[in-house]
Amino acid sequence: MPSSRDSISGWLDVLTSMLALPESQRLQVRDELEDHLRSRVDDLLITGTPEPEAIRIAVAELGETAELAKLISHAHTRINPRRRIMNIALITAAVAGLSIGGYSLNSAPSAGELDPSMQVVTAAIDSNEPADETRMLDIVNMPMLMAFDAIADMWGFAIDVHSLDPHIVGDLQHRNVTVAGEMTLARAIQTLKIQSLQHASVLTTEINGGVIELLTRDELIRRTVITRVSLLPSWITTEQREGYAESIGRIVEVKYDLDYTSIEVVNGAVIVAAPPNIQDEVTRLMMELEAVAETQQEQAIKAQEIAKREKDLLRSKAVQNLMVEHERIDSEVRKVTEVLEETLVGIQSLINQIEQEVKAPHPNSPGLEVLEGFLEARRGQVARYRIQITKNEARRDFLQKKIFESEYAHLFEGLE
User: Which of 176, 216, 318, 413 has the fewest CB atoms within 10 Å distance of its CB?
Assistant: First the structure.
């Protein structure tokens, strides 16, 4: 591979020495190839490409050396002598672009070539089809549209150009091409397309049944666009709807050109219009986001369940403590009540004894004054017992209420 302008001459010497042509024709081919290479290098230098890279690109565009020599030799023996090396770069570029038994995508254009949106793409032809049969072509200086029609007719196909812009059709009618030699339909069409690469009306060919349709790459891609409608994920809030579609688009755009893609959210649905490969990417991304959301939801549910169990455990312990305290106070109330009842019985006995002492004093009686003192003391005890019972009953009722709330009130949470 040459890396400098001086090394181009050496490479051309090797190439032309491989040509199966008379010496005079080899020299003619060498001169024309050198003119083409140096002009191409100059064009690339103007675009800012470094010289070594410009030389590499220009030579690579010509193709592999041995195959190039074979094609040039064949062209000189088959094509009209007045146009033998016409557009020699276009003839030799076929080496890299052709595939056996079918059509292939052309490689991306280098600096100075056409915009990528105008590249040539075609559909494959099944190996069992008659299109794989070879024919001898001798189309010389014929308008491209007529050449397409003539080639298609040789293999039993028709040409359809209704999808093309009238300006492109006009270009095809005025652009003369040459296709000569023994080749398959795929090779013949590829040769035509190669010669159209210098034109703005770069074509796409698609074979449908018995028709070879000529259309632009844009039209072909638009035909692949499909529309899918799916429900917006349940975890997307109203505020997140527009942002969801935009986020999906930005992520997919890192990998794909979205010139033919639309992602919108309408009435709770995600509507995607795009070619199949982008549709698959969007679907995959949405499914992964849904899986992440489901995982987060499961984790949140587990966290809530753990929190609930911990809360229930704390409530259970609190209720248990309340019940123990309630039982203690209730027992104390019962004991004080029993003492109060005994005290009341004693008071009644004192009252009876005092009344008896007033009527008829007993010799062994401690005396009326002492008995009345005992009565007063017992009445004081009764008052204290009643106060203690009242406080304990209030405390017991309070604990009973708390126990009820702890046991049942949580069932009504969130129902207000």
Answer: 413
**Number of neighbouring beta carbons within 10 Å of residue 35:** 12
Question: CB of 382 within 8 A of CB of 340?
Answer: yes
Q: What is the pairing mode between strands 158-160 and 211-215? A: parallel
Q: CB under 8 Å to 159, separation ≥6 — which residues?
A: 145, 148, 149, 152, 211, 212, 213, 214
Measured distance between the N- and C-terminal CA atoms of the chain, rounded to whole angstroms: 83
Residue with token string 């018995």: 210
Residue 187 has pLDDT above 50, yes or no: yes
In the predicted model, what is the mean pLDDT of residues 366-384? 89
The answer to whether 168 touches 206, Cβ cutoff 8 Å, is no
Q: Specify the amino acid at residue 41.
A: V
- Which residues neighbour 70 within 8 Å (Cβ) at sequence distance 6 or greater? none
Instruction: Report which secondary-structure segment, H or E, holds 95.
Output: helix 94-97
**How much is the pTM?**
0.43
Choose among 32, 142, 148: nearest CA to 84: 32
Question: In the predicted model, is pLDDT for residue 195 greater than 60?
Answer: yes
